[in-house]
Specification:
seven-stranded mixed β-sheet, alpha/beta, Rossmann fold, binds magnesium ion, about 25% helix, 14 helices, binds adenosine-5'-triphosphate, Ribosomal Protein L25, Chain P, Glutamyl-tRNA Synthetase, domain 3
Length: about 575
């Protein structure tokens, strides 16, 4: 951290954890507030997802920030479901969201709330506004509403109902609540300023009629508060100090303050909640709109919200992403006020960094070529020790069976090799990983001249892959026992979309025009027998191939299915 970047602020009060992290403007604001007397323990944030879909990597950026800022100051972060729109909200998404937040290691303690917990209170605040002459019931149709509101630069036109007597508005509002009217017939509007340059301040709607059952309150309500009204007041009720949201809410901020300052909640506040906006995450080749992700699921273009190609945390978990990688990525991208496109390669870089440390190594052959070991007895099995993770001694070793017939990768043999081909060639020696030095004696071909099998010999003195006499071999290749290997399916993923910037599509284009036809290729492979018990989510590295994990839904222990998490090296631009 460079302290001189923000030399105007005193930082003694900042926790050590925060001061070791890269500075960004939200950290800066909190440090400033603390310097101005805010007790760090009073830093109180919230993560407010709408339970109408699963969380994606963009949400992870948001909640790493919400929980992160609270944690590093010893404050609190609430999980609050923003369930003010009964249309698409479902309890199963509530459960999925909790699982995802926990997966990244964050916890809300006993502070899990719903905006719907406050429906009674919010209704009370609305009546307060009416009684203070600051809200009225309006009968304009949605089209008229827009017309009257006008455009920026020109004053709006007041609704003919703007000066409806208080008593009349109160009576209509109560009858809206009682279910006497149809959807769209009436709305309650705040009376703010029809001349404001900010359209959101031109008498925004506060309550609308919606005759829809709610996932928690059932049919108790037929009027529901608008997001702008419910959100700030829920923050105030919960004692939120820093309400962090994405940039599109910047223009709503005056409204955020207006609702708090014009209702009785303001008198009860110890600290006035403040809204701060940051740029949402856009990731190349990735689509982040929940509505469009929902469409992919509904149209069965993907295998559910947790399809490993989806940018959802559930999908990423199934694909083999680690929480560490996602958190490192969210820290690495920082927090700014400028919309930009982040390279998927950066996320994958963070992923490889972690996988290299934690993935258990294993051997799998994707394109098998049979090898018969001439000087090995039929039926003899040698259980060799293989290191599980060279980066982590505590991961231990496992046994890998060596037998008379093995498979190697077809590409690891060349009959007429070019210079610098250090793998297997006729009369040349390679090391079989963890096993023996092996020499090719004979190439067996079919009638068309294709290589179908190799006859080789091994040097028994090189057991474990160690040179018996100091002689060197240049290449080391992986293999599996032909007798003991298991068959498995590898799911090879590419990006779901072919276009880098999915947040900004050409005019008239549909996002589905950019679906990648090669986003999934299934391949039958051969794996070493220890992988029979691979646990879904356990990171694996199939040596020299890619990182994988066992799929949580598909496959059996007799025929497992593995998801390719990411390739060993960045292949972009190749
Ligand atoms: P969508 O608009 O795609 O439906 P949303 O933003 O409405 O998504 P919410 O459930 O309301 O989804 O989001 C919860 C929180 O996550 C909000 O504070 C929102 O600003 C934040 N968020 C959503 N998408 C992103 C993103 N791509 N990057 C950063 N934060 C995000
Ligand atoms: Mg939202």
């Amino acid at each position: 951290m460079k302290a001189n970047l923000w030399a105007n602020y005193t930082i003694e009060n900042m926790s050590e954890e925060a001061s070791n992290k890269p500075m960004h403007f939200i950290r800066q604001i909190i440090a400033r507030d603390i310097a101005n007397g805010l007790d760090p323990k009073d830093v109180h944030t919230r993560f407010p997802p709408e339970p109408n879909g699963c969380l994606h990597i963009g949400h992870a950026k948001a909640f790493c920030l919400d929980f992160g800022m609270a944690l590093e100051n010893g404050g609190k972060c609430n999980l609050r479901f923003d369930d003010t729109n009964p249309d698409k909200e479902e309890t199963r998404f509530v459960e999925a969201i909790k699982e995802d937040v926990h997966w990244l290691g964050f916890d809300w303690g006993d502070r899990m709330y719903y905006a719907s917990d406050y429906f009674d209170q919010l209704y009370g605040f609305a009546e307060e506004l009416i009684l203070a002459g600051k809200a009225y019931v309006c009968t304009l149709s949605p089209e008229e509403f827009k017309q009257y509101r006008g455009v920026p630069g020109q004053p709006g036109k007041p609704s003919p109902h703007r000066d409806r007597p208080i008593e009349e508005s109160l009576d209509l509002f109560r009858r809206m609540k009682a279910g006497e009217f149809e959807e769209g017939q009436y709305v309650l509007r705040a009376k703010i300023d029809m001349n404001s340059p900010n359209l959101h301040m031109r008498d925004p709607a506060i309550y609308r009629i919606k005759k829809e059952a709610h996932h928690r309150t059932g049919t108790k309500w037929c009027i529901y508060p608008m997001y702008d009204f419910a959100h700030c007041l829920s923050d105030a009720i919960e004692g939120i100090t820093h309400s962090i949201c994405t940039l599109e809410f910047e223009v709503h901020r005056p409204l955020y303050d207006w609702f708090i300052d014009n209702t009785s909640i303001v008198k009860k506040l110890k600290i006035h909640p403040r809204q701060y906006e940051f740029a949402r995450l856009n990731l190349s080749y990735t689509m982040m709109s929940k509505r469009k992700l929902q469409q992919l699921v509904a149209e069965k273009i993907v295998d559910g919200w947790d399809d490993p190609r989806m940018p959802t945390l559930a999908g990423m978990r199934r694909r083999g992403y680690t929480p560490r990688a996602i958190k490192d990525f969210c820290e690495a991208i920082g927090v700014t006020k400028f919309n930009s496109l982040t390279e998927l390669a950066l996320l994958e870089h963070c992923l490889r960094q972690d996988l290299n440390k934690v993935a258990l190594r294993a051997m799998a052959v994707f394109d098998p070529l049979e090898v018969e070991i001439e000087n090995w007895d039929e039926g003899k099995v040698d259980d060799l020790d293989a290191v599980n993770n060279p980066e982590d001694e505590s991961a231990g070793t496992r046994k890998v069976p060596f037998t008379k017939r093995i498979y190697i990768e077809r590409a690891d043999f060349m009959e007429n090799p070019p210079k610098k081909f250090f793998r297997l060639t006729p009369n040349n020696e390679v090391r079989l990983r963890y096993a023996y030095f092996m020499k090719c004696k004979e190439v067996v071909k079919d009638s068309q001249g294709n290589v179908v099998k190799l006859i080789c010999t091994i040097d028994p003195a090189s057991r474990g892959g160690n040179s018996p006499d100091g002689r060197k071999v240049k290449g080391t290749i992986h293999w599996v026992s032909a007798d003991k290997a298991l068959k498995a399916t590898a799911m090879l993923y590419e990006t779901l979309f072919t276009r880098a910037d999915m947040s900004d599509l050409p005019e008239g284009a549909d996002f589905k025009d950019f679906l990648n036809p090669n986003s999934l290729t299934k391949k039958e492979i051969l794996i070493e027998p220890s992988l029979k018990d691979a646990k879904p989510g356990q990171p694996l590295q199939f040596e020299r191939i890619a990182y994988f994990t066992a799929d949580a839904k598909l496959g059996t222990s007799q025929h497992p299915v593995f998801n390719r998490t990411v390739e060993l090296k960045d292949s972009y631009g190749k």
